[in-house]
Design brief:
The chain is α+β, with helices and mostly antiparallel strands. It is built from twelve helices and 15 strands. The protein folds into two domains: about 80 residues, Nucleic acid-binding proteins (OB fold (Dihydrolipoamide Acetyltransferase, E2P), Beta Barrel), CATH 2.40.50; about 270 residues, BirA Bifunctional Protein, domain 2 (2-Layer Sandwich), CATH 3.30.930.10.
Length: about 450
């Protein structure tokens, strides 16, 4: 978003001209004026004779300020950028400046989220970045790292795919309203317009609540952030202008399949052969005969259902198949379903929530099942977090919890198409820099 040069907080109205010193970086040099960025503001400085400054220079300028304009008097050059030996055409400064509005909105969002939870009696728990288990979701790749102790013995730890396990230990320890905003890590190809290997997740848990209470929290938080960051004129996200005013529509997965696919999902869940035939028909192609129900479900969701969710307002999709329960409870009286919901905006999943499983025996069974799925898929199985299982045996109160992708939500609020535009230092910056350094090294070797 291009900002118009303005005087901002640097200058106050005055009845006559006065001399002022400003310090900042030259954003551009035009025919009769300099555009200086100082303390986040753009200032237009007019001159009669070119002062010999260039884009990127960091300067101290004496100006004369009147009611009409700001005129150049003298300057001191503080820093002139050196030539980049790698041949980078755009400096880190200008790469970061392009995200100026986004990163300021990001900071306001983080601050408002914290005040939202503090006002409601939640405690922020800072969860660790080195954990015993990264998480048990079979489809998620993870990162490992090694700690070497003072006796030179290696200990393998993991970067968390979610703070879930740590926060549930806190629930077991008696903390009833808790949240964390933290970086989480996903490996194996997590890089694209909506994916990044490191991103920011907000998780919160409420003891003695279920997923319907978390639905209310989510609607309240998202609509509040929209009012403060977007205002009354929302910008399109993925070509769709979203209305952020609550209430947000809620639809069961069964209803969504009936409406968008024309299939009775419950009937499919009871008969795998019937589900395979129905999915093959709606997807209009032959599917592998041995494809399981979970894979079929994901195919239809990804290709048909998800693109139609949250197209006018954020939508809550709830009651998923029991095979996708992860760590949620099975719905009472509906053994084929679980108490899980996801929040969608313009077809993009933003959050995933449960009525949390707190039965240690069932938890152990699901962990064993997920490890088996990882091994059958050729993925190294995640280690079991024994601390969590011991904590659950001591008793975790009934609770609702949610994981919300802060970067994706910020993208939706600001109408941004790629996640890297809301992340200060994306991985692609590092990889492109490595490639440039590699080319520089090759050039130098050739000259030896």
């Amino acid at each position: 978003m291009k900002r118009t040069p303005r005087y901002g907080r640097f200058f106050t109205s005055t009845s006559g001209p006065r001399h002022i010193v400003i310090r900042g970086r030259v954003e551009s040099v035009e025919r009769t004026r300099l555009i200086i960025r100082s303390e986040g503001e753009l200032v237009a400085v007019h001159f009669r004779q070119a002062p010999g400054l260039y884009r990127g220079d960091i300067v101290e300028i004496m100006v004369q300020k009147s009611d009409e304009r700001v005129d150049y008097l003298t300057h001191k050059l503080l820093v002139r950028p050196a030539e980049d030996p790698v041949g980078v055409r755009h400096s880190m400064y200008h790469e970061m400046r392009s995200k100026f509005e986004n990163l300021h909105a990001r900071a306001r969002m983080w601050s408002r989220v914290r005040s939202f939870f503090q006002e409601r009696g939640f405690l922020e728990i800072q969860t660790p970045s080195l954990v015993l288990s990264p998480g048990m979701e079979p489809s998620l790749g993870f990162f490992t790292t090694t700690y070497v102790d003072h006796q030179q013995r290696p200990h393998v730890y993991y970067l968390p795919t979610s703070p879930e396990f740590s926060l549930k230990k806190a629930l077991c320890a008696g903390y009833e309203r808790i949240y964390d905003i933290r970086p989480v890590f996903r490996n194996f190809g997590e890089l694209g317009p909506l994916h990044h290997p490191e991103f920011t997740m907000l998780e919160w848990y409420r003891a003695y609540a279920d997923y319907t209470a978390i639905m209310h929290d989510t609607e309240e938080l998202v609509s509040l952030l929209a009012r403060e960051l977007v205002g009354k004129e929302p910008v399109p996200f993925r070509g769709i202008r979203i209305s952020w005013e609550p209430p947000y529509p809620r639809k069961s997965v069964q209803e969504a399949w009936s409406q968008f696919v024309g299939i009775d999902l419950l009937a499919c869940l009871q008969d795998p052969t019937y589900m395979h035939a129905q999915c093959q028909e709606v997807l209009e192609r032959t599917l592998p005969a041995d494809e399981d129900q979970t894979t079929l479900f994901h195919r239809v969701m990804l290709e048909i259902v998800e693109p139609q969710l949250g197209l006018d307002k954020p939508m809550i999709l709830y009651d998923y198949p029991a095979d996708l329960a992860a760590l949620s409870v099975i719905k009472q009286g509906e053994p084929l379903l679980c108490e899980r919901f996801e929040l969608y905006i313009a077809g993009v999943e933003i959050a995933n929530a449960f009525t949390e499983l707190n039965d240690p025996r069932e938890m152990a069974l699901r962990i064993r099942r997920d490890r088996g799925l990882q091994m059958s898929a050729g993925i190294p199985p995640s280690p079991v977090d024994g601390q969590l299982l011991r904590a659950l045996r001591q008793g975790m109160p009934p609770a609702g919890g949610i994981a919300l992708g802060m970067d994706r939500l910020l993208m939706a609020l600001l109408g941004i198409s790629t996640i890297e535009e809301v992340i200060p230092f994306p991985l692609s910056d590092l990889t492109s820099h490595e490639q440039r350094l590699g080319r520089l090294g090759e050039d130098r070797n050739e000259g030896c």
